[in-house]
């Protein structure tokens, strides 16, 4: 077997190569290997300079996330960094793929950095609820300046090599495929020219400008307050950069960083975010669809319907360079749909997110048509027409007739039965649900809905395609609302019931907002439009929503819904809504009761978790962690709380069961505890245990 870290010599240059697939994470064995090889190179009198390079697809992509929270193993990262930084011979980091987190921190203690054009560099620890804990917060601002450093550590952005060169984060760009040669040549020149060994820690010039300017940090906090809400790590990252500027020595700043890192690492937010990191990657694995399942080529996509969803779905593929044919029923709907796409692209370009020529390039990939026959050469067709079974069936019968053999026929239905849709075709094995979320060009979640007869390669292709268009895919089974909406329906129902029991819509929204959601259910309903699926002729004044619609309070677009809205779309609690609620309560003959914030959380969240358990016991989700991935990506569940099922484990399944039993006794069967929940509690198990057992059935 190849050594994890090996040392070879090319004339006077030592080459230390890390080979630890998949991403050369900085695990103990890598750290030990590098220290050993660097020491060997330093001791070798023939060696004049050292190149640190990685095999495989990337430079070091960071610390080994799986090692966090475990007893430290020797040598520690500090020992490794000291060995590199204090080397009397120049060390050149040769970067390809990604130099992230601890990987970039290693590169920052090397005396020089060269990178391929495709390489990316960044400190993404923030995404794990952490901060760069190996000197990154102290060294980065010394190279790129305080403002850029603040931006990089709090966004976790991966900076392309060209930009990194412009900000002196790398010293030279090397031709792709010739990294080793380029790095060796750089190292030779360093020796020949007698370049001084750069120790980033000694360079304070870029910090001077920020010294004593607290406003830089205060403004940054203010500007990003919304983005950082609820998270601990952004503030700690900022404080570390402040410490880099204001400490009397590098060591003093480093001590601040170490302290904050330790606090974050052991805190609940980072633990949840690290769990989430692996959950997202786990979701890609489908036990009976192996990684080597052949996939179908997707070179051309068809989208049926250019409405809210069809347009956004089409954009995803155009963004990835895949041509799309969009078919509509009427010319004006087609023109409108294409117009919306164009103005979306133009808005992005105006904000600097796209070059003007890219707008045209993407629009050129989209072809509008009124004829289904134009789908004949498409490899994948996604239907996004009205949510009605009769229409979907008619559409799929036509697609079956027109589309070529092997084409994947997908529906974007939110809740209709995919098997019933598939049954109208002669090829149910080619039919799948691809449930995008609105706005489909923005939202990361894709529920991949597996029908009873969906072929393995159709699933494998869909999962692969999802990654290609930047979506996070989760496999779901056929059931009403699949994973996400099925659980959301629980929250919606209970929120509405709570309002008729005495809580105000603004209380419910405030509590869920404070829990960490981007907005509460009533604000969300106002935003979506209260008249979605509502028809005046059939309205019976029997629900709060019906009454609001009947009097024209259709939501934010009408300036009034549950809330009143001013011209700037600021929401204010509405006395009109309050009066309608009061009348409903009076009519019910019950008295409003005082409902605490804690009760609001329990009533809105526990039934969702209970539904999640039912989804698991019916096998409609593969794992509890898959459900968490759905909620974090599709519904704004705060990632620092891991996801609903992870959250349930933290508060204890027993507590949830007790509450669900209480709700069931008072409110009936729609709140009946799931039998799997009862079983897990009886066995003293958690959802994490449940997932573990699924992973290794031999343990069950
Ligand atoms: N530690 C442990 N495992 C890691 C890892 C890491 N840093 N990075 C990736 N992996 C694993 C993944 O879990 C996955 O495992 P699996 O195949 O068993 O599911 C495998 O490597 C491949 O990862 P991806 O599927 O994510 O591969 P991609 O090619 O899509 O992406 C990547 C590659 C961009 C490097 C992405 O993996 C990534 O973003 N990794 C995390 C980077 C990161 O956060 N680094 C900072 C770590 S914290 C740190 O360094 C602290 C320090 O400051 C002290
Ligand atoms: P929409 O009403 O905005 O768009 C539907 C479009 O389909 C219209 O432009 C209509 O002209 C066109 N259409 C109808 N019948 C057609 C036919 N036979 N041939 C070609 N075009 C036809 O609807 P929206 O919101 O885009 O929804 C589409 C589908 O996506 C529905 O199944 C819906 O449940 C689902 N969905 C909607 C979400 C949302 O938030 N709006 C989220 C996720 C899924």
Small-molecule binders: 3-hydroxybutanoyl-coenzyme A, 1,4-dihydronicotinamide adenine dinucleotide
CATH topology of the largest domain: 2-enoyl-CoA Hydratase, Chain A, domain 1
Strand order of the largest sheet: 12-11-10-13-14-15-16-17
CATH superfamily of the largest domain: 2-enoyl-CoA Hydratase, Chain A, domain 1
Estimate the helix proportion, in percent: 40-55%
The average pLDDT is 96
Rg computed from alpha carbons, rounded to a whole number of angstroms: 28 Å
CATH class category name of the largest domain? Alpha Beta
What's the N-to-C terminus distance?
Answer: 34 Å
Estimate the strand proportion.
5-15%
Largest sheet: 8 strands, mixed
Number of DSSP helices? 30
- Low-confidence runs of at least 5 consecutive residues: none
Number of strands: 19
What would the principal axes of the Cα set say about the shape? globular
Can you name the CATH architecture of the largest domain? Alpha-Beta Complex
Secondary-structure-based class equals alpha/beta
Number of structurally distinct domains: 4
């Amino acid at each position: 077997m190849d050594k994890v870290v090996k040392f070879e010599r090319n004339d006077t240059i030592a080459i230390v190569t890390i080979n630890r697939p998949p991403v050369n994470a900085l695990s103990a064995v890598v750290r030990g290997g590098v220290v050993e090889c660097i020491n060997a190179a330093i001791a070798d009198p023939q060696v004049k300079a050292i190149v640190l390079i990685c095999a495989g697809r990337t430079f070091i992509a960071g610390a080994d996330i799986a090692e966090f929270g475990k007893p430290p193993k020797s040598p520690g990262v500090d020992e490794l960094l000291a060995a590199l930084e204090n080397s009397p011979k120049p060390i050149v980091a040769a970067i390809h793929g990604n130099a992230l987190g601890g990987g970039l921190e290693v590169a920052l203690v090397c005396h020089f950095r060269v990178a391929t054009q495709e390489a990316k560099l960044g400190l993404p620890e923030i995404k794990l609820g952490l901060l760069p804990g190996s000197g990154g917060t102290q060294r980065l601002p010394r190279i790129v300046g305080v403002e850029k450093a603040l931006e990089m550590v709090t966004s976790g952005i991966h900076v392309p090599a060209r930009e990194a060169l412009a900000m002196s984060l790398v010293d030279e760009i090397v031709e792709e495929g010739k990294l080793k040669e380029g790095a060796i040549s750089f190292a030779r020149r360093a020796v020949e020219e007698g370049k001084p060994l750069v120790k980033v820690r000694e360079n304070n010039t870029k910090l001077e400008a920020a010294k004593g300017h607290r406003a830089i940090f205060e403004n940054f906090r203010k500007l990003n307050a919304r983005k950082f809400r609820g998270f601990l790590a952004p503030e700690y990252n900022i404080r570390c950069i402040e410490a880099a500027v204001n400490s009397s020595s590098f060591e003093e700043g480093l001590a601040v960083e170490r302290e904050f890192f330790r606090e974050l690492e052991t805190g609940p937010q980072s633990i949840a975010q690290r769990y989430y990191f692996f959950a997202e990657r786990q979701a890609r694995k489908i036990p009976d669809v192996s990684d080597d399942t052949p996939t179908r080529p997707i070179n051309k996509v068809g989208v049926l319907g250019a409405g809210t969803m069809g347009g956004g779905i089409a954009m995803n593929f155009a963004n990835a360079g895949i041509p799309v044919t969009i078919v509509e029923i009427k010319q004006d709907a087609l023109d409108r749909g294409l117009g919306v796409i164009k103005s979306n692209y133009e808005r992005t370009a105006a904000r600097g997110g796209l070059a003007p020529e890219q707008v045209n390039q993407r629009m050129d990939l989209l072809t509008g048509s009124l004829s289904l026959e134009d789908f004949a050469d498409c490899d994948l067709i996604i239907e996004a027409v009205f949510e009605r079974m009769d229409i979907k069936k008619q559409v799929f019968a036509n697609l079956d007739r027109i589309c070529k053999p092997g084409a994947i026929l997908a529906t974007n239905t939110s809740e209709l039965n995919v098997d019933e849709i598939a049954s109208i075709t002669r090829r149910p094995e080619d039919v799948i649900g691809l449930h995008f979320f609105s706005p489909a060009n923005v939202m990361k979640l894709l529920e991949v809905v597996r029908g009873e007869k969906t072929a393995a390669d159709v699933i494998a292709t869909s999962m692969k395609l999802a990654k290609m268009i930047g979506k996070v895919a989760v496999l779901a089974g056929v059931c009403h609302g699949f994973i996400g909406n099925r659980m959301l329906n629980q929250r919606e129902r209970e929120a509405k019931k709570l309002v008729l029991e005495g809580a105000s819509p603004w209380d419910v929204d405030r509590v869920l907002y404070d829990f960490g959601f981007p907005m509460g259910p009533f604000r969300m309903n106002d935003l979506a439009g209260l008249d979605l699926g509502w028809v005046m002729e059939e309205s019976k004044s029997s629900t709060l929503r019906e009454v609001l619609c009947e009097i024209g309070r259709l939501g934010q677009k009408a300036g009034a819904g549950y809330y009143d809205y001013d011209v700037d779309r600021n929401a204010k609690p509405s006395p009109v809504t309050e009066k309608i609620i009061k009348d409903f309560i009076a009519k019910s003959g019950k008295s409003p009761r005082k409902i605490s914030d804690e009760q609001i959380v329990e009533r809105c969240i526990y039934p969702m978790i209970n539904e999640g358990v039912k989804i698991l016991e019916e096998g409609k989700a593969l794992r509890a962690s898959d459900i968490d991935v759905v909620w974090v990506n599709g519904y704004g569940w705060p990632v620092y709380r891991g996801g609903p099922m992870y959250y349930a484990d933290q508060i204890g399944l027993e507590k949830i069961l007790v509450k669900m039993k209480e709700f069931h006794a008072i409110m009936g069967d729609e709140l009946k505890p799931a039998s799997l929940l009862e079983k897990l509690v009886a066995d003293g198990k958690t959802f994490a245990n449940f997932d573990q057992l699924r992973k290794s059935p031999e343990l069950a």
